[in-house]
Specification:
mainly alpha, single chain, 129 residues, 73% helix, elongated
Amino acid sequence: MKTRPFGVTLLAILAGIAAVLAIFHTLQYLHLLPFNLGGVVRFFAFDLFGAIMWGIMAAIWIWVVRMLWSMNPQGWLFMVALATLNLVLAFVSVLGGSTFQALLPAILVNAIVLIYGLLPRTKEAFGAA
């Protein structure tokens, strides 16, 4: 069993934060949380689809946290792919009528996860050199 480096622990924590942000956006699109927290959140006038997309992202992030915690190399691959998809979804949400400020926390966390996940030492920890 591999020992978990501090950087991988940090990535798992950041992935957990990304999951919480995705859950937060899901609840906003379901109109269970106020839309004006951080700005307006809309998804092309069809908020249910936005809620479904962010909910799927949240579920996958929770799975990725578990994979990262157990040092599974597939967790690293899914983390990189999911951070990229979350960035795309956030920018599509901005195009769909959401304000940039409302999605800025999700954009920042996913960008940090993606950048940190692509560093050579992080790849090396998962054997993805």
